[in-house]
Design goal:
Length: 234
């Protein structure tokens, strides 16, 4: 029961600050993209990872991801102008036999292997689409264009969604084909599947699968890497 994974990594990540594309930013000396691919490749549920890189960085990314050090086959293809376009390009690069597809953010470099396995297992068990998610802990308010509160939402019914998200390949391809006729700026593949009227199953996420978006997230990620290193020496 294997899956293939797509890692869209062609974006700039402006909120992390100017400079190197976010996926190639170093996290404790290793590019975040490399760590994310390594997490996927170490899963016994994944046998191929397709990285969708900035067109100008395809050769550089290939050199960063030697297969003999990862444990899975890795392919690198050129991405598009948006995440949605990049995922579609990644889909077009998949081998014919692939039935289950994961889509994972390069900016979630420390996703635990057990979460990857859980997502794949849920799809093989019958779900058309699966997202890992955590309960929302903050109070969430809706506001209008003038930043005035219009509603306080019930957080018991809210979830903060993570990746990898898992899909039956045919469902994800249909969702992207339909979305290609509209705006090309979706950042959530499960949302595209929802637009088909297909049910999306939620499973328990993991605190270590957080997204590195702001500088403070990078500090937290570096602390987690340091903790993992310490635990591995005990």
């Amino acid at each position: 029961m294997k899956a293939v994974a797509i890692v869209p990594a062609a974006g700039r990540g402006e909120r992390l600050g100017p400079g190197t594309p976010k996926a190639l930013r170093a996290l404790a000396g290793v590019p975040m993209l490399v760590r994310a691919v390594h997490s996927l490749a170490q899963s016994p549920s994944v046998d191929l990872v397709v990285v969708v890189a900035p067109p100008e960085s395809v050769a550089e990314v290939r050199e960063l991801l030697p297969e003999d050090q990862l444990g899975a086959t890795v392919s690198v293809v050129a991405g598009g102008a948006t995440r949605q376009q990049s995922v579609r390009l990644g889909l077009s690069a998949l081998p014919t036999p692939a039935e289950v597809v994961l889509v994972h953010d390069a900016a979630r470099p420390l996703v635990p292997v057990e979460l990857v396995d859980a997502v794949v297992r849920a799809v093989w068990d019958g779900a058309d689409a699966v997202v890992p998610a955590l309960p929302v802990t903050d109070t969430v308010k809706a506001v209008d264009l003038q930043e005035r509160v219009t509603d306080t939402l019930d957080r018991a019914a809210l979830r903060s969604v993570q990746t990898p998200q898992g899909f039956r390949r045919s469902v994800l391809e249909e969702a992207h084909a339909k979305a290609a006729d509209g705006p090309q700026d979706s950042t959530d593949d499960a949302g595209l599947v929802e637009d088909l009227g297909v049910a999306v199953q939620v499973i328990a996420g993991h605190e270590e699968a957080f997204k590195v978006t702001r500088p403070i997230d990078l500090v937290l990620a570096e602390a987690l890497v340091a903790r993992r290193r310490l635990e591995s020496t005990r």
